């Protein structure tokens, strides 16, 4: 017969085991969440690593820029237009030229279809100003989207001329619009490698995603969600089994423009 003391100890042991299991699961979820957009040396967050981030965003000039010559893969994808990223560099953030009270529309003419999104300069003036500047410099043209995540976090990361996760325009700028930030489907946000390390890398959210409010949201997709879903359905070159890798679809920006509405 089990005594009350033995029963108490059994219940305590079971409670402890449940707590341990919950901690392990929580750590696992946290690692998956942080990895997505964090990687200075990791995959996402870092511009140097990948998405979670824009990353280290320091280009040492030794990485070979990706070309747009790969054969098309994925529904609706075609051969990218010929050309290579110009990989221009600047030592400082561009001066403010956007109208801080206006909205702007970005058009991503990709090898897999067109994606458009609006940007509100009143909420993220530095971010919108940088994006408009880089688009005007043809910085994004012929660059390849280098990261797709399909488990836990659902984003396509782009904006790196090296397609390695470490490319940047040479400057960094401050975070914005983080208070209460969420990342539902249709969000466009900056990738980074830590606070105030924004550069050129950004990600497009194709399905509601839970992330810490650490990545500046600056755009809302208005067209082309079907394009993103087709890219996601083609999957990623996942070497670690975690739903995180280069997209199987060949996603190259033929041309990126940003104009005032």
Summarize this structure briefly.
With 261 residues, the chain is α+β, with helices and mostly antiparallel strands. 21% of the residues lie in helices and 20% in strands. It has helices spanning 4-36, 125-136, 225-233, and strands at 103-110, 113-120, 147-149, 155-158, 187-190, 202-205, 217-223, 236-237, 244-247, 253-260.
Q: What portion of residues belong to β-strands?
A: 15-25%
Radius of gyration: 20 Å
Question: Helices and strands, in N-to-C order?
Answer: HEEHEEEEEHEEE
Calculate the mean pLDDT score and round it. Answer: 82
How many domain units? 1
Number of helices: 3
CATH architecture: Beta Barrel
Number of DSSP E strands: 10
CATH topology: Cyclophilin
Biggest sheet details: 10 strands, antiparallel
Distance between the termini: 79 Å
Low-confidence stretches: 30-70
CATH class: Mainly Beta
What order do the strands of the largest sheet run in, or round the barrel if closed?
Answer: 8-9-3-4-6-5-7-2-1-10
* The named CATH superfamily: Cyclophilin-like
Shape: globular
Helical amount among residues, as a percent range? 10-25%
Structural class: alpha+beta
């Amino acid at each position: 017969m089990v005594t009350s003391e033995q029963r108490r100890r059994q219940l305590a042991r079971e409670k402890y085991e449940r707590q341990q299991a919950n901690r392990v699961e929580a750590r696992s979820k946290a690692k998956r969440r942080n990895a997505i957009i964090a990687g200075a040396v990791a995959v996402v967050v870092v511009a140097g690593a990948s998405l979670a981030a824009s990353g280290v965003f320091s280009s040492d000039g030794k990485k070979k820029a990706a070309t747009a010559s790969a054969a098309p893969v994925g529904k609706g994808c075609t051969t990218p237009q010929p050309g290579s990223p110009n990989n221009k560099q600047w030592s400082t953030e561009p001066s403010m030229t956007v109208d801080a009270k206006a909205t702007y529309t970005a058009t991503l003419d990709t090898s897999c279809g067109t994606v458009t999104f609006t940007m509100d300069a009143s909420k993220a003036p530095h971010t919108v100003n940088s994006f408009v500047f880089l688009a005007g410099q043809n910085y994004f043209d012929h660059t390849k989207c280098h990261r797709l995540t399909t488990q836990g976090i659902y984003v396509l990361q782009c904006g790196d001329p090296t397609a390695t996760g470490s490319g940047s325009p040479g400057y960094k700028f401050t975070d914005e619009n983080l208070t209460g930030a969420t990342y539902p489907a249709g969000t466009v946000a900056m990738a980074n490698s830590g606070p105030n390390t924004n550069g050129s890398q950004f990600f497009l959210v194709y399905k509601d995603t839970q992330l810490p409010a650490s990545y500046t949201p600056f755009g809302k997709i208005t067209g082309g969600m079907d394009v993103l879903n087709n890219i996601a359905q083609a999957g990623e070159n996942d070497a670690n089994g975690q739903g995180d890798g280069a997209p199987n679809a060949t996603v190259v920006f033929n041309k990126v423009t940003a104009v005032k509405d």
